[in-house]
Design a protein that fits this description.
mainly alpha; 0% strand; antifreeze protein; 1 helix; single chain; Antifreeze_1; 103 residues; transmembrane
Length: 103
């Protein structure tokens, strides 16, 4: 009978431990979706930061490209002015020579 009593005591202790652990397990199970949602939200936020950084880099790139294009247009206009002077002269018989007209 003593052995049966020990077995019953052990079974009761195991049952008590299981009952005590049940709320902890339930809390962990309930917290898992919240943790997963928080991780997903953090991943989405990180992706948004990456997209913002990429957009900013693209905008900076486009601004630089526009500045280069403007500089190229100014250089082309200056070159066209110089070429016009060389080809047409200053209208006073000094074709191809800058400065005062030559007689």
């Amino acid at each position: 009978m003593h052995t049966t009593s020990l077995a019953a005591d052990a079974a009761a202790a195991i049952a008590a431990a299981a009952i005590a652990a049940a709320p902890i397990a339930a809390s962990a199970i309930a917290a898992a979706p919240i943790a997963a949602a928080a991780i997903a939200a953090a991943a989405i936020a990180a992706a948004a930061v990456a997209v913002t950084a990429t957009t900013a880099a693209t905008a900076a790139s486009m601004t630089a490209a526009a500045a280069i294009a403007a500089a190229a247009a100014a250089a082309t206009a200056a070159a066209a002015t110089d070429l016009d002077f060389v080809l047409l002269g200053d209208g006073a018989g000094a074709e191809g020579v800058r400065g005062d007209s030559q007689i």
